[in-house]
Amino acid sequence: MSDTTDLAQLRKSYEKAELSEDASHADPLAQFGQWLDEAIAAQVPEPNAMTLATVGSDLRPSTRIVLIKGYDANGIVWYTNYDSRKGRELAGNPFAALQFHWVELERVVRIEGRVEKVSAEESDAYFASRPLDSRIGAWASPQSQVISGRSVLVANAAKYGAQFLLKPPRPPHWGGYRLVPTEWQFWQGRKSRLHDRLRYTTDGDGWLRERLAP
């Protein structure tokens, strides 16, 4: 650690907004949509970036950043390599958690639930919409595997680029996941560390909204 930096003394007063039961939506999806729209409008860096947490068979959690590509009443969608570490962990334990952190707005959204693969048709449609280099990259990268160097990726990209030209098909090991929420939490930073924190839980028929101590 730098001699000029005292991490214990780094502090910030959160005073930009509030989150009350009266002003929040009864449906967490509507609340999420509002906050996501506001993050996009505020031009925060990568408002679509979210942390994905999974747990492997060894019961050790792991996290990584993925990008939300859609959401509706059915859940939150992202796309990735099914053979990656997260893919293998989800195959063994289909429960996960997501987190959005919009620092500039002093907001956090946490989502927990069960994960399922989206349909092949949905994955095909999204894959076809990606830039060509991203589609080639899905073939070129053996995600989460040890490789000898970057040259492996460059060689693979050249190989598949020559093989598929302008029309690479979706790899069988690549596609979408959907997290079906069973719990949402919305956190709004407030002064004196007395933050606003609302939790939504469901029994399958509706949502119960409760305030949690921060």
In short:
The chain is of the alpha+beta class and 214 residues long. The protein contains five helices and nine strands.
The CATH C-level name is Mainly Beta
Question: What gap, in angstroms, lies between the N and C termini?
Answer: 29 Å
Compute the number of structural domains. Answer: 1
β-strand number: 9
State the CATH topology: Pnp Oxidase, Chain A
Total of DSSP H or I helical runs spanning 4+ residues = 5
Present the secondary structure layout.
Layout: H1 28-41, E1 49-55, E2 61-67, E3 70-72, E4 75-81, H2 85-92, E5 95-102, E6 107-117, H3 120-129, H4 132-140, H5 150-164, E7 174-188, E8 196-202, E9 207-211
Antiparallel strand pairs: 1-2, 1-5, 3-4, 4-7, 5-6, 6-7, 7-8, 8-9
Helix pairs in contact: 4-5
